[in-house]
Amino acid sequence: MKRALIVDNDPLIVELIGSILEEQGISVTRAYGGLDALALLKKETFDIVFLDLVMPRVGGDRICKFIKQSPQHTGTLVVIVSAVALEAKTKIAELHPDACIAKAAYPVLKDNILKTLNILRSGQHDGSMVCASDGVHSRQIVQELLFAQRHFEAILNSMREAVIELDNDNMITYVNPSAQALLGKKEWELIGRSFIDGFPDDKAQEVKAALREIAGGSKKTTDIVLQYTDREYTLSLTGVVRDGEMIGTTVVVNDLTEKRLLEQERALRERLIGVIEMAGAAAHELNQPLAVISGHAELLLREAERGEGDMVKRAAAILEQIERLGNLTRKFTSIVAYKTKAYGANIRIVDIDKAAQPDGIHTVKIKGLWE
After folding, report:
1. Secondary structure element (H or E) that encloses residue 224, with its range
2. Residue 345 pLDDT exceeds 50
3. Strand order of the sheet with strand 221-228?
4. From the CB of residue 280, how many other CB atoms can be counted at a distance below 10 Å?
């Protein structure tokens, strides 16, 4: 165990742990926050990493996941050193670090670090998390605060929308599971990466300009539409202000493709309903003249066979109904509005007379035998 990385946003803790390790002949590299640690871990490997759990922007939980999931750091030992080691023991265990040490007064802290190093160096470590919390007691108030934190994390993790958090340099500091699924990458591949680098050049300039406007205060929020292959997305960018200071940007990504397909389906369904209602109207309007034509044709045939009756009168009635059918077809071709009327108990059909242009409603006499 030759090289160690110490990560904590408190410089005093970094120096204290650094001095303990250097006394053991270990070369120490110092990082004063999660983003600094990520930058180092992407370039170098270490035998062991001492990692604070609660840090601004990128917490120790994400750094631990990065180390444990990254093929580059296979075999790197992770030791969580936290003031909430006892209260957050369950959460820490879920990260699968090699050891967990509770922050305490320097003599106690040093003793716990040396005990942990001896176990990890002995070769008898069975892979379970080593816990060193001598001289430290759990606090109820810290448990309550951690519960509230995990509650909000659970909400973000359950959201269907992709949520991405950026710092003031547009580096990704958080991605919820939906964002990981959308981008097709794991969390350790995304945090610490520039958000802008993921876009094509033309869209990258648009995103960069939008982020610049938000950072400058000229806009609080803005939306960008992004077309990618056969899908369409909106990126809602909102500046995050804490205590009057801009600390970054949240990006919420919505996939509009499904919404657009649903709208197309609804429009198609409405058109289909219109067609069905039009077909009902056509059947209703055409049925009566066809019935009259059929009846007169039958009577005409019988009278012709018996040599009786007024054949001219029958023929005129048939042509009158044919004229009615002609007017109906002209109304169909001149429909300009969508008007319906009741037809039966639970059925509506198109009201052809109200839906057609007035010009389409006129009578054209068909010259026939009776003139």
Report:
1. strand 221-228
2. yes
3. 172-175, 162-166, 245-255, 231-242, 221-228
4. 17
CA 279 to chain centre: 41
This prediction's pTM: 0.59
What pLDDT is attached to residue 369? 29
Q: Does domain 260-360 have CATH number 1.10.287?
A: yes
Q: In angstroms, rounded to a whole number, what is the distance separating the alpha carbons of residues 215 and 298?
A: 86
For CATH 3.40.50.2300, the residue range(s) in the chain are: 3-137
User: What is 3-137's CATH topology?
Assistant: Rossmann fold (3.40.50)
Structure tokens at 220: 């609080």
Whether 97 contacts 66, CB under 8 Å: no
Residue with structure tokens 């069905």?
276
Query: pLDDT at position 79, please?
Result: 93
Predicted confidence (pLDDT) per residue in 178-188, tens digit = 888 888 888 88
How many angstroms separate the CA atoms of 269 and 327, rounded? 29
> Could you give the residue range(s) of every CATH 3.30.450.20 domain in the chain?
159-253
CB atoms within 10 A of CB 229: 6
- Exposure on the CB side of residue 191, measured as CA atoms within 13 A: 28
What percent of the chain is predicted at pLDDT more than 70? Answer: 78
The whole-number pLDDT of residue 365 equals 37
The pLDDT score that the predictor gives to residue 363 is 40
| Cα separation of the two ends of the chain | 116
pLDDT, position 227: 74
Q: Which fold has domain 159-253?
A: Beta-Lactamase (3.30.450)
Q: pLDDT tens digits, residue range 137-153?
A: 566 655 656 556 666 77
> Cβ neighbours of residue 256 under 8 Å, at least 6 residues apart?
225, 231, 232, 233, 234
Helix (H) or strand (E) holding 18, with range, is helix 11-23
Query: 304 with 311: CB under 8 angstroms?
Result: yes
pLDDT at 335: 67
